[in-house]
Amino acid sequence: MYFLIILAMIVSGLIQWRLRSKFAKYAQVGLQSNLSGRQIAELMLQDHGITDVRVISTPGKLSDHYNPTDKTVNLSEAVYEERSAAAAAVAAHECGHAVQHATAYAALQFRSAMVPMLSSVSKYMTWILLAGIFMLQTTAIPLWIGIALFSLTTLFSFVTLPVEFDASRRALAWIDRRGIVTQQEHAMAKDALWWAAMTYVVAALASLATLLYYVSIAMGGRDRR
After folding, report:
1. Model pTM score
2. I want to staple 97 with a disulfide (CB 3.0 to 4.6 A). Which of 1, 43, 66, 70 is the partner?
3. How does the average pLDDT of the chain come out, rounded?
4. Could you list the residue ranges that cross the membrane (predicted)?
5. Do 128 and 149 form a contact (C-beta atoms < 8 A)?
6. Taking the alpha carbons of 109, 114, 116, 122 in that order, is the dihedral positive or negative?
7. CA 179, chain centre distance (Å)
8. Per-residue pLDDT tens for 78-93?
């Protein structure tokens, strides 16, 4: 089980490196449409009849996200201004989440409903797990409580996957339909979004491996009593 967790960490690091290198490469390819990330985002929202979502710039690299609470598409400074295949992919993907929100996409609704609960759980989960491990020779109950809480974070990781893949599907379909990208630029955008999605896949698998690790500790402690 240790091996799986270490392997997941190594693979996660490699995918993050690959993702950054892909985005750096595709950021150098200017769009023939000459639209910036901001313009692409605003156009996609407009085409979907979404008028209550703002497109704003946010600090950092690969910090792009959609915030359903205040209805903002947050684009990193580079994506906001750039006119590249990478910027087009990211801007359209984040607007894909806005479209999901506007159309009440079930997976996004379920994921959003989990956020307040997970915010509370995360404050105590680690301490409960640690306490459960120390108390295992006496009782396994605290550890199983911690495992139940951790299983919620694992579930959240897996629920995130269809949300991310669907946002990318919507983004790629729209930039093609709207003529934002050429065939070559579409291939670059698709490749960039695929590597971004892989970070979520690895995170979900790592969370599952960690969950199974805690379960094995609990089961091992039970067998020794």
Report:
1. 0.87
2. 66
3. 91
4. 117-136, 143-163, 192-215
5. yes
6. negative
7. 27
8. 899 999 999 999 999 9
Among residues 82, 94, 164, 185, the one annotated as catalytic is 94
What 3 state SS string does the chain have? CHHHHHHHHHHHHHHHHHHHHHHHHHCCCECCCCCCHHHHHHHHHHHCCCCCCEEEEECCCCCCEEECCCCEEEEEHHHHHCCEHHHHHHHHHHHHHHHHHHCCCHHHHHHHHHHHHHHHHHHHHHHHHHHHHHCCCCCCHHHHHHHHHHHHHHHHHHHHHHHHHHHHHHHHHHHHHCCCCCHHHHHHHHHHHHHHHHHHHHHHHHHHHHHHHHHHHHHHHHHHC
**What is the amino acid identity at position 212?**
L
Q: For residues 212 and 1, what is the distance between their CA atoms, to the nearest angstrom?
A: 8
* Poorest-pLDDT segment among 105-109, 119-123, 179-183: 119-123
What is the rounded CA–CA span in Å between residue 176 and residue 186? 7
Q: Six-digit token pair at 225?
A: 């009593």
Q: What is the dihedral of CA 81, 73, 104, 164, to 10 degrees?
A: 70
Nearest to 203 by CA among 3, 13, 37, 1: 13
Q: Residues, the chain, total?
A: 225
